[in-house]
Write a structure and sequence with these properties.
With 300 residues, the chain is α/β, with parallel strands linked by helices. It has two domains: 210 residues, Rossmann fold (3-Layer(aba) Sandwich), CATH 3.40.50; 60 residues, Alpha-Beta Plaits, CATH 3.30.70. It has eleven helices and 13 strands. The strands form three sheets. A six-stranded mixed β-sheet has the order 5-6-7-3-8-9, with helices on both faces. A four-stranded antiparallel β-sheet has the order 11-12-10-13. α4 packs across α5. It is elongated and about 75 Å long. Bound molecules: adenosine-5'-triphosphate (ATP). It is found in: Cell membrane.
Length: 300
């Protein structure tokens, strides 16, 4: 499959501050790549270079083979951003029709997209009067109406309730199946883990990991054993392979690289052991391990 986004050796500075340092990233048609990293990692800078908002300083950025600083190239691009500003004078219908025409499509392309996203009833309304979640869906309509080859989704589900979020991912899954490439930035790590085909982790302007969500988590040796116990913390720490011990109410969470050895001895020593559970590490823990920072936020 062709790459809809090619980023090769990209560097970017703000004065003396290095925001990106030799970043490579490729997104194929029909693939969703999640771009994750703690605050200040360089995600917004990379998105800015891809939309053509920022001028390229070092390396190559190509959208469908073209330079995103050129208007003709940007027609292949759809962008959904959390902080989308809309002109106050236009109705939702006019905004989406305008986006269609700017992308070289007929104004009539707007109505089916509004219907698909479930906001046909908003067409006569003006954007400033809409809720955050409604505005987010208008942004999605404007991005999809141009039939883009590459979608940039920057914190796209902020402000959406659970059912709107589900509907949002369903629509995007349909576009991905139809061959649209996507770059997703989000602080909701569960969404990235559930939707993205690959995860690229940026840290201090560099790519520190690129893999499938499962591939990233399987690199982590740790398991967490959760249980009720009669042992105190020093006794737990003395068990084989224990790395961390954390109390949470009447339960204890024990991190270990060797759950079998740990459990064998724990079961032999502890008559009060009950409610035992062993969990694998998730993508969130993998990101913390890779960057040393916790980048998850509680979903709104
Ligand atoms: N206009 C600017 N002038 C100076 N420094 C900047 C500018 N924009 C970003 N930076 C710096 O460049 C680095 C990368 O910023 P960027 O906004 O790309 O990170 P990010 O990963 O999007 O962070 P966040 O998750 O907080 O949005 C940060 O250290 C930031 O302070």
């Amino acid at each position: 499959m062709t790459d809809v986004l090619e980023i090769d050796g990209v560097g970017h500075r703000y004065g003396a501050h290095v925001a990106l340092d030799g970043v490579d990233l490729a997104v194929r048609a029909g693939e969703c790549v999640a771009l994750l990293g703690p605050n200040g990692a360089g995600k917004t800078t990379l998105i800015g270079l891809t939309t053509g908002l920022l001028a390229r300083q070092r390396g190559r950025v190509a959208v469908c083979g073209g330079d995103p600083r050129r208007a003709a190239t940007r027609r292949s691009l759809g962008v959904v951003q959390q902080t989308m500003g809309f002109p106050s004078t236009e109705t939702v219908g006019e905004l989406v029709r305008g986006a269609a025409v700017r992308a070289g499509r007929p104004a009539g392309a707007a109505a089916p997209v509004l219907a698909e996203i479930g906001i046909a009833d908003l067409a006569p309304r003006r954007a400033p009067k809409l809720s955050g979640g409604q505005r987010q869906r208008v942004g999605l309509a404007m991005a999809l109406v141009g039939d883009p080859a590459l979608l940039l989704l920057d914190e796209p589900t902020v402000g959406l309730d659970v059912s709107a979020r589900r509907a949002f991912w369903k629509i995007l899954a349909g576009r991905r199946d139809a061959g649209v490439g996507m770059v997703l930035t989000t602080h909701i790590v569960e969404e990235a883990a559930a939707f993205a085909d690959r995860v690229v982790v940026l840290h201090r302007g560099r790519v520190v990991a690129a893999d499938t969500p499962d591939g990233l988590t399987s690199r982590l040796p740790d398991r967490t054993v959760t249980a009720r116990t009669s042992l105190d913390d020093p006794a737990l720490r003395a068990l084989p392979g224990v790395r961390t011990v954390r109390r949470d109410g009447d339960r204890v969470h024990v991190g270990t690289a060797a759950p079998e050895d740990l459990l064998r001895e724990w079961l032999a020593l502890d008559r009060g052991l009950s409610d035992l559970r062993v969990d694998g590490a998730g993508l969130e823990q993998a990101l913390v391990a890779l960057t040393g920072e916790d980048l998850a936020e509680v979903p709104a």
